[in-house]
Amino acid sequence: MHEYLDEEIPEEHKQELKEHLQICADCKQHFNELVKTVALVQSTSHIQTPENFTEKVMMHLPREKKKVGIKRWFGRHPILTAAAVFIIFMTASVFASWNQDDNFSVTKNKNIIIENNTTAVVPEGKTVEGDIVVKNGDIRIEGKVDGNVTIINGNNYLASAGTVTGEIEEINKVFDWLWHKIKDISSEVLQLFNSDKDAK
């Protein structure tokens, strides 16, 4: 049938088809439907789409939901997505730990005395080797600290006759505390790398 409609059928097959269509009602009905379909397609070949057809169709399509656009953006930028998620979680954990950690604490050392559970004291004649970190309290140095002193969220550093060989830093804001944490982590990482190089 298709060969006949495409005018590519050999003459002997054409005769066989005509004879069969005279005796088979189903094939004759199918053939007539094919003829009508071909005629319809040929009659529409001269139809052209109006100008701006594509733009008009696109304007009438439903708008994409914001969720789909966001998901697509995340799919196209996985590294930025991972970095953003990491920053969000780190920021949340930093603020949570800043707000929750309101207990007095101090670096453990046998030469540091605690007064009223709010003040760390380095007594006269005593030396503390290494850094001291005081959280949510004060420090009074009457002896010597051979290192840095950091007061986090404390009232103040109580000046006295003692000496500190390193830096004295008071951190009373969350961003200062965050910067302090970053410096601590960086120095620990550098120490790890240096110890690995020394081991080799």
UniProtKB/TrEMBL annotation:
It holds the Pfam family zf-HC2. The keyword Transmembrane applies. The chain crosses the membrane at residues 79-98. Residues 1-27 form the Putative zinc-finger domain. The keyword Transmembrane helix applies. Keywords: Membrane, Transmembrane, Transmembrane helix. InterPro entries: Anti_sigma_zinc_sf, Znf_put. Belongs to the zinc-associated anti-sigma factor (ZAS) superfamily. Anti-sigma-W factor family. This is Anti-sigma-W factor RsiW. It comes from Perspicuibacillus lycopersici.
